[in-house]
Write a structure and sequence with these properties.
Elements lengths: L3 E5 L9 H17 L4 E4 L13 H10 L5 E8 L5 H14 L4 E6 L6 H8 L8 H13 L20 E5 L2 H10 L3 E3 L8 H11 L11 E9 L3 H19 L19 H10 L3 E4 L1 H15 L3 E5 L5 H17 L5
Parallel strand pairs: 1-2, 1-9, 2-3, 3-4, 4-5, 5-6, 6-7, 7-8, 7-9
Helix pairs in contact: 1-11, 3-5, 6-7, 10-11
Length: 333
């Protein structure tokens, strides 16, 4: 069976707080572990009122402490915002506390707007080669140190922390292939280059010490419920959030609105249908059919599911349905 994993932005709902979002994420991680999910990732975003996962490595520790088996990691750390040594130390600390359970996904996007990126980085000097160099530098800090190596990550050096390259374009695919690392594509919100990126990654993959053959994990939205009407209603919170983000007015995750998509401006609706094309909305049977089609199309090795819902109990149920669906997926022609 293809592994399913969870991507969580630790959403802050309207009327809610970051503390509540963190408690919900912990609860979801515990349920995901019980339901057989493979890994639980949180993502670095900044200056977005509805996303609480800015201090990503801190949140990973909170979630790893509340679970015992599921892999916990970053999907991802936006490496241009950080010094590689700093990330090596942070994730070396996490791996030392929770051995064999920590993943480190790396992205080159800012995870923010230019003003916020400047506040994080102190300058925005652009160098197209900086991200690949930073990844290689980070790899060196996590490797066994040489006998005369003056600068070491303590903790971090010599720890077996799997690195992933994240991307939404062909750039990340090329880098992951060149370095022989697993590749996670953000098809859940940026599916435009999905198939070219997968093709480039698989055709150009060079085996490494970490990975012998290509491994592709794809983001996918699931809004599952016991009836279609409820599922469509629950999906409207994420739809509203995407429209707000794309129009420059991000906010906390809003409550669902009946018939939101049907009453939306045609241009906004077309935008949603494009950016959220990798999405399953509906009953268990509907979700299974959509996921089966997606796996057949892409040949994904793993799916990372995200389900941005206002109601926490409904979000739990959506992930529970997806776990049940995974047991019955058939990829026969």
């Amino acid at each position: 069976m293809i592994p399913f994993s969870v991507l969580d932005l630790s959403p802050i709902i309207e009327g809610g707080t970051a503390a509540q979002a963190f408690r919900n994420s912990r609860d979801l991680a515990q349920h995901a572990e019980a339901w057989g999910y493979n890994r639980y990732w949180v993502a670095e975003h900044h200056n977005i009122p509805g996303v609480a996962s800015a201090a990503t490595s801190v949140l990973i520790g909170y979630l790893a402490e509340a679970t015992s088996r599921i892999r916990v990691g970053a999907g991802g750390i936006m490496l241009p915002n950080h010094a590689p040594l700093q990330i090596a130390e942070q994730f070396g600390t996490l791996e030392s506390l929770y051995p064999g359970r920590i993943d480190l996904g790396l992205g080159r996007a800012p995870g923010s707007d230019p003003l916020t990126a400047r506040a994080l980085r102190r300058n925005l000097d652009s160098d197209p080669n900086a991200f690949p160099r930073d990844v290689i530098e980070l790899q060196a800090f996590l490797a066994e140190p040489g006998p005369n190596q003056a600068l070491k990550a303590v903790p971090g050096a010599g720890l077996d922390i799997p690195l992933w390259i994240l991307g939404s374009s062909t750039f990340g695919a090329q880098l992951a292939a060149h370095l022989g690392l697993p590749y996670a594509f953000a098809s859940h919100f940026a599916p435009g280059d999905l198939m070219p990126a997968i093709d480039i990654y698989r055709r150009n993959f060079q085996p490494s010490e970490q990975l012998a053959k290509p491994y592709v994990m794809l983001g996918y939205n699931v809004f599952a419920a016991d009836n279609e009407e409820e599922a469509r209603l629950l999906a409207s919170s994420a739809q509203q959030s995407f429209v707000a983000l794309r129009t420059g007015t991000p906010g906390k995750l809003p409550p669902p609105v009946p018939n939101y998509l049907e009453n939306l401006d045609p241009r906004a609706r077309a935008m949603l249908e494009t950016v959220l094309s990798c999405t399953a909305i509906g009953t268990p049977d509907m979700v299974r059919e959509r996921i089966e089609d997606f796996i057949r199309l892409t040949g994904a090795d793993e799916l990372m599911l995200t389900s941005m819902m206002y109601d926490h109990k409904a979000r739990l149920r959506s992930y529970e349905i997806a776990a049940e669906v995974r047991e019955s997926i058939s990829l026969a022609a």
